[in-house]
């Protein structure tokens, strides 16, 4: 059984901005895949790599996910070893789910993970963040 991670996408206002950042050379590893460096190494590595995803919180809502491909180790310029989350380039939009701000990442069980948007809705233009949050909070979307 797999487990997921939930992570804030700091400084990002939309899924499109996250996609643009991940398409930049700075966000990719030598293999061309998007990656995210985090300070802590997940203890539940085997469960994460058994089909887990990173669910991205943008503007207070989980809005999309990316499949986690592998974890790599990298030493920072300060000599501290960090964990590199290597991600599938495909961002899959999910049903918006409210999430309060937090630091780092958290585990997210599959049962608590928001569902992917149906194929036809994934291409729809996103609602304004405030409206999206209000509708998600009352359970409409």
Structure description:
The longest helix has 9 residues, at 15-23. 16% of the residues lie in helices and 34% in strands. The protein is an alpha+beta fold and 141 residues long. The protein has one domain (4-137).
How is this fold's topology laid out?
Elements: E1 4-8, H1 15-23, E2 35-38, H2 45-48, E3 53-58, E4 61-75, E5 81-87, E6 92-98, E7 105-108, H3 129-137
Parallel strand pairs: 1-3
Antiparallel strand pairs: 1-7, 2-5, 3-4, 4-5, 4-6
Largest sheet: 7 strands, mixed
Q: What is the general shape?
A: globular
**Number of DSSP E strands:** 7
Give the ordered list of helices and strands.
Answer: EHEHEEEEEH
Low-pLDDT ranges? none
Structural class: alpha+beta
Q: How much of the sequence is in beta strands?
A: 25-35%
Termini distance?
Answer: 27 Å
- Give the overall pLDDT as a whole number: 90
Number of helices: 3
What's the domain count?
A: 1
The proportion of residues forming helix, as a percent range, comes to 10-25%
Rg, please?
15 Å
């Amino acid at each position: 059984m797999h487990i997921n991670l939930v992570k804030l996408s700091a400084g990002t206002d939309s899924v499109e901005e996250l996609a643009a950042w991940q398409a930049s050379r700075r966000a990719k590893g030598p293999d061309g895949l998007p990656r995210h460096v985090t300070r802590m190494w997940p203890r539940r590595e085997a469960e994460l790599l058994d089909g887990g995803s990173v669910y991205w919180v943008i503007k207070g809502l989980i809005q999309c996910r990316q499949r986690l491909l592998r974890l790599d180790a990298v030493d920072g310029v300060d000599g501290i070893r960090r964990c590199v989350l290597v991600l599938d380039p495909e961002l899959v939009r999910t049903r918006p789910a409210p999430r309060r701000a937090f630091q780092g990442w958290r585990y997210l069980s599959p049962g608590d993970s928001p569902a992917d948007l149906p194929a036809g809705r994934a291409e729809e233009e996103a609602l304004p963040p405030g409206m999206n949050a209000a509708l998600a909070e009352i359970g409409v979307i």
